[in-house]
Amino acid sequence: MTDSPYILQAKNLTKIYGENVIFKDISLDVKKGETIVIIGPSGTGKSTLLRCLNLLTPVNSGQIFLEGEEITAHGVDHDQVRQKIGMVFQNFLLFNHLTALGNVMIGLTKVKKMPTEKAKQKALHELERVGLADRAHHYPAQLSGGQQQRVAIARALAMDPLVMLFDEPTSALDPELIGEVLGVMEQLAHEHMTMLVVTHEMGFAREVADRIIFMEKGRIVEQGSPEELFEHPQHARTREFLGKISELYGKKEKK
Amino acid sequence: MISFFEFFVRFLPDLLSGMGMTLLLTAEGVLAGFILGLAATLARTYGGKFWRNLAIAYIELFRGTPLLVQVFLLYYGLPGLGITLSREWSAFLALGLNSGAYQAEYLRGSILAIGEGQMLAARAIGMSKWKAVFYIILPQALRLAIPAWANEPVSLLKATSVVFLIAVPELMTRAKLIASRTYDPISSYLAVAVLYLVLVYLVDAAMKWLEQRTRLPGLSAVNESS
User: Fold this and answer.
1) Residues A205/A39, Cβ–Cβ less than 8 Å
2) How much of chain A is in helix, strand and coil states, percent to nearest 5?
3) In angstroms, rounded to a whole number, what is the distance separating the alpha carbons of residues A203 and A201?
4) Interchain CB distance below 8 Å, A111 and B127
5) Subunit contact B218:A83, Cβ cutoff 8 A
6) Which residues have CB under 8 Å from A152's CB, separation 6+?
7) Closest-CA residue in chain A for B125?
8) Best mutation target, A55, A57, A97, to test chain B (most B CBs within 10 A)
């Protein structure tokens, strides 16, 4: 570990697919314990950015640092890095052949080589953290979407990550199941877990985020505290996007 | 009809010993084919360019030529290269190689159906590619493959009959001998047909059992197949 004040740092990241520039020159500093919410229209590279940060997708240029160490450098073991960066996906992606407990345990036993009994204790503890200890022996197909996503969060937490990345964690959920997942995330934020969250849940952003980043067309347009962004957005595009989003949510609530 | 039953009972011991060989060839072929097919499909799906091409070449070659030709090439062709195999070994090798090519395709289909999401999730918790394949992808892909793959033991069981052409003492060979001894080919081949039918029924039952045993709780799509 070095004396860098940042847990995760990205410098001038650029990602290009063929002719398509997904994002360009993105720089990002994440402090320990910070909750950052990334918002913006779909197709602006938010999800790709998260996948690049834990090296699931290679960037075309730029550098990423985890605790001051460059993880985009040659010869870095990507599997080692990913153990330290938890990721939660939009469509949960639980391992369907394993119980909730098995899903949380497998990283401990097969990646961290923890003895089975110890791994089981830790996995049960993580399931307790997300309120699902009583569902430990259920298979994913026997769980609701909200429960599956909470198991997915427990699976990531079990690896004791330095940072958690959430890629639209509630977008695939029925409205009545969103709350339980956001509740778990809020609790993590209170426990000072460092988090990067891509979401359209503006209520969550407003209440839980330390900082909000507005991304559009592969660039960071504006960033700041929830007050700064929601009350005094500097850019016309930010205002427009926030306006559209709240309009959409107003309609949803009327239903 | 009475005379057929008499015939059947009279030659049953003879036919049963042939049936043993047929079952042995089937079991060996399915097992060897499974190992080969799994290796080929993993090479094709996750291997580098060299291994991928090698796997494709193997699969195309053995799916693209008749089993009988493969049996003849191994039994009559290899001695020309200085390699002489017994009848049984030639039959066993040909059946394993042939079945492997088909099994590779069954397995590949289900690996693709599992999707990249599961691989992504496995990599995200720090698993290496091969750990993800063995602990996450295969346990699901193999289950998914069972209903389609279950055709392979049945089809191989019947395909073993072609090896009577190199006189491996299996069911069909016995029937041929009995037919020429008794001058009653109809009863002889009918008896064999009955025995194949019984065997296929037993193999089918075993496959159903396997499917039940490996079923995952809560996945109703699988339940509907019965």
Assistant:
1) yes
2) 40, 25, 35
3) 6
4) yes
5) no
6) A88, A89, A92, A93, A94, A103, B121
7) A83
8) A97
Dist CA A174 CA A146 (whole Å): 8
Residue A104, C-beta contacts closer than 8 angstroms, at least 6 positions apart: A123, A126, A127, A151, A154, A155, A158
Query: How, if at all, do strands A35-39 and A211-216 pair?
Result: parallel
Please state the φ and ψ torsions of residue A143, each to the nearest 5 degrees.
Answer: -115, 150
User: Which of the residues B125, B220, B223 would you substitute to probe the A interface, choosing the one with the greatest number of A C-beta atoms within 10 Å?
Assistant: B125
Instruction: Using the structure block, give the residue that is written with the tokens 């359209």.
Output: A200
Instruction: Give, in order, the Cα–Cα distances in Å from B3 to each of A211, B10, B171, B184, B186.
Output: 91, 10, 21, 11, 12
Unique residue bearing structure tokens 């996007």: A241
CB contact burial B13-48 (16+ within 10 A = b; e otherwise) = eebeebbebbbebbebbbebbbebbbbbbbbbbbbe
pLDDT tens by residue, chain A, 255 residues: 456 789 999 999 999 998 899 999 999 999 999 999 999 998 889 999 999 999 999 999 999 999 999 999 999 999 999 999 999 999 999 999 999 999 999 999 999 999 999 999 999 999 999 999 999 999 999 999 999 999 999 999 999 999 999 999 999 999 999 999 999 999 999 999 999 999 999 999 999 999 999 999 999 999 999 999 999 999 999 999 988 887 766 544 433
pTM score, two decimals?
Answer: 0.88
Min Cα separation B208/chain A (Å): 19
CA distance linking residue A68 with residue A57, whole number of Å: 20
Quote the CA–CA distance of A58 and A131 in Å, as a whole number: 35
Per the CB < 8 A criterion, the answer to whether A23 and A45 are in contact is yes
Identity of the residue numbered B217: P
